[in-house]
Amino acid sequence: MAEERFQLSSVTIDQFAKIAEPTGSRFNVNVSVPVKASYNEGIVAVGVNVQFFEGEKIILQLEVFCHYEFELAYWDELTANHTKDAVIKKERMANFFSIAVGTARGVLAAKTENTPFSVCLLPLVNGSPDMGPDFVL
């Protein structure tokens, strides 16, 4: 197994809003995957934005980011000393996405515990490596 040349450096909760109290326990859920990068510092943040709907009305919104800091020597390798785009393999991005989903699930459980919003559960989300091409920053 290859040595990891990055580490999870922080987790941020960029949005958490209880908009309207749920009236039931079945929801439509919209999940998106925002990605941010600080190219010069070798930092990539993979997030999960989740919106829970009852009908057309958003009742809860959450956005969480997991920030990964790459070793500078490794980042220099990925970017040819900052002369080309960094390419993150799709398998690695799938790992980052899975970690972000699990983190969002934990934040959601902790922030809604013992409230009417505790029925808002994040469904299983597929973050398999066949989700698309490698990611270019």
Short description:
With 137 residues, the protein is an alpha+beta fold. The protein is built from two helices and seven strands.
Q: Can you characterise this structure?
A:
By secondary structure, the chain is α+β, with helices and mostly antiparallel strands. The protein is 23% helix and 38% strand. The protein has two helices and seven strands. Strand 4 and strand 5 form a beta hairpin. The longest helix has 23 residues, at 90-112. 19% of the residues are buried.
User: Structural class, please?
Assistant: alpha+beta
Which stretches of 5+ consecutive residues score pLDDT under 50? none
Number of helices: 2
Number of strands: 7
Short key terms for the protein model shown above:
elongated; alpha+beta; five-stranded antiparallel β-sheet; 7 strands; 137 residues
Please specify the SSE layout and strand pairing.
Layout: E1 6-18, E2 28-32, E3 35-38, E4 43-54, E5 57-70, H1 72-79, E6 87-88, H2 90-112, E7 135-136
Antiparallel strand pairs: 1-5, 2-4, 3-4, 4-5, 6-7
